[in-house]
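Many introductory courses stop at the sequence. We go one step further.
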Amino acid sequence: MKPRFRQSMNWLHTWSGFVFAWLLFFIFVTGTVGYFENEIDRWMKPEIAIVNEPIDDLTILNKAQQQLTANAEDATQWYISYPSTRDPYIDISWLQPANKETGTRRQWHEKNLAPNTGELITTRATSGGETLYRLHYNLHYVPLVVGYLVTSLATMLMLIGLVTGVIIHKKIFIEFFTFRANKGLRSWLDIHNIFSVLPLPFHLMITYSGLMLLMGVSFAPVVDATYGEGQKLHRQLYDETQREAAETQFINLPASDLSLQSALIDAKSRFENQAVSYLGLIDRNTEQPGFEVWFDAQQGIEFATLITYRVVDEHVQIEQAVGKKYSAAKVYDVLEHLHEGLFADIYLRWLYFLSGLLGAGMIATGMIIWVQKRKKQQTGFINVIDKLNAAVVIGLPIAIAGYFYANRLLPVDMVSRAAWEMHSLFIVFVLCVCFCVLQTAKQAWQRMLWLAASIFALVPLVNMLTTKHNIIVSFKNSDWLMLGFDLTMLLFAAGFALAACVLKRRKAEGNAEHIIKKGH
């Protein structure tokens, strides 16, 4: 029974991974890139004025409030973003209400603030890091619900693949310390095991949590059967189950004195050791506006602390969010925070990033193993799969690099510029697929690796030629995000070049071995 059981699990492991392998690779890569979405935003908005020296919180508020008063008097919400390690600049944003007379729709506006002069800086329209991150669950061009459902199905098969992978490898942790070089398929299996076992807790967490985060769509029939059908009822269920728990109290502050400034001063006295991340003024031009003060969280997996000030019965009431009200929502919150990693500092974020890359590597090596096991068949189908593997595994990173190129090369005043950045990503990806299909499988892998190395190596050069930034200037100005981005591109270029050299050497060794055998 045991051999048969493990054999059946082996079959399930192979096919649960293969069916959605390309999509899972896409999800892992774009999701992993998203752990640095703020840093990508910084690079894709080179006009931003960064803050190099400490600025008093009240000084930032005064400069920002002057611009908001001048440019967003009719807005229903104001927000001021304070400089932080991940976002070392000052931003203001406001929500402009819809205007039936002019035909304008409800819209958010965002501007960068020069730290010295307080002047507004207009940055280029860009899809930025957030849109790149959202690719891993909305798939961009498909309807949102379809994207969620397809992603949920792929994630479920990924979870099955992980569990069955543990079952079929009885000596999985022993095999983790085993690597047999120059052994063909055996070497690929060893690499696959290393990529799978080393970050296994991360893989299980990220897959299970991803499945749970989309359960509102994937398990919609359950909600329909128990709560009612329709988007309105679904929204009502979500609002009720995700209700926030809060602690409230009245403070000794005259209601007439409540303002962004007084709220900031009071909040800072309560959280002396925490940095302010946002100030918000919500429900503006109403009888009961709210003043929000956000702080960076210092411990646990919470990424922010929120205090809201309002006038209630002619007294100032403060409300501090303390998490979700219900147990199920608390569990959901934990899974969401673990999945997104917003609480992570720079070191933990890099660990998330590397674990995600290992996950993508696990899927990629699984795709290669699937082909290697069937190459003796020499069928046209297997050869096409091999070429498409090269197109996906190397073409997707090239397409993401193309996304960065589009940010620098498209005209700044171009209509629908942000949308065309994302179109450029998929256009480059399709071109990579076409290029690989027209090559032999060996040529496709070799040439795509060199192409990827060249394209990533040129990203800092393109940045230097199209903006005022380069590696030296970024270092002198202490613009660590811009510098880190350029250096990371060079690191990826070196990685692809190294892989190309190894593949070339393996090919030469294989040809030499073939000639020797033929001579005998």
